[in-house]
Amino acid sequence: MFNKAERDALAERVISFYCDSGAFDSNVTWQHFKPEGIPKTTFYRIIQRYNDEKKVKTNSPPGRPVKIMTPKVLSAVQNLYTDNPSITETEAAKKMKLTESTLGHIKRKKLKMKSRVKITKPKATQEQQNRSIKNSGKLYRKLYRKKGTVLIIDDETYVPADPSQVPGRHFFTCSDPENVPIEHKIKQKSKFPKRFLVWQAIDEFGNVSRPFITESTMKSDIYIKHCLKSILSKFIKKYHPNSPVLFWPDMATVHYAKPVMQWLAENDIDFVEKDENCPNLPQARPIEKFWALCKAEYAKEKNTASNLEEFKKTWTKISKKVARRSGLNLMKGVRSKLLKISQNGVFSVK
Known about the structure:
This is Tc1-like transposase DDE domain-containing protein. It comes from Tetranychus urticae (Two-spotted spider mite). One of its GO terms (molecular function) is nucleic acid binding. By secondary structure, the chain is an alpha/beta fold. It folds into 3 domains: 4-53; 71-110; 129-344, Ribonuclease H-like superfamily/Ribonuclease H (Nucleotidyltransferase, domain 5). The chain is 48% helix and 8% strand. The chain contains 13 helices and 5 strands. A hairpin with an 8-residue loop joins β2 (195-203) and β3 (212-214). The protein is elongated. The two termini are 43 Å apart.
């Protein structure tokens, strides 16, 4: 692609030859310049312009000359975002001595750049990251130590009794917000909403256990009696009666109380020891995403659960629905994530 100076220089050479050596014969002139690889349309446009208008040089492009969005400025903006992708548009405009609207136009229209949302990850110390990298590799290898081993993950979460109190973004649609009733423009939030503690387990095939739900906090005796004995052991017998399992609890203190570890050992349930566990690593534990999907479904409920049994019935229905729809997809990448983390670090997976 020629710029104006190059086009004008070419035109002067073509017309000079056309008038002097070419004897005003366009074909002779074309045969002379053809080896240079000049596009034929470009060549004949030069000849035609000279014959019709007696002009050699091209016209300047219409409009005002470019003073701000010059190639130099575009390159500087490109380099600025390459060096610091996290810089805000306000800071970048100030640094480049441009208006924010001009910088935004350069970003989006000229450079085809697009701002993207950062992925939220738990803040982990370097020591925790090193442990997770080391232990994710151990966990990955442990899953292949016994042929047919099935990974089972458990976790707890708190869920508000009132579906409208489930955290999340809410919207209203209108042409003029001044004409919208106030109840549609706000989301009321209770300071201390009533909530339930939910515990569940999920295996790597997406099967989910029935939930244990309580209004109190989790303690080791409750965890053993209501979660491990009443639910986990039956869950294993139902789905994996003849397969070895590896139980991966999170690092809550109650999960590693001495009575808990003793019960697991007595019942021949292989589990991830505390010193082998991965701190602050929800990206490798899809049950965290499972909770988010369940809560999103629960937020659609119209009525607040009036008691524990009513909430239990609703949550059981929702968790089964989410497990059927998304359980397998959530869990099928766990092993590859563990391997990738052990090789490339804790932020190498989403």
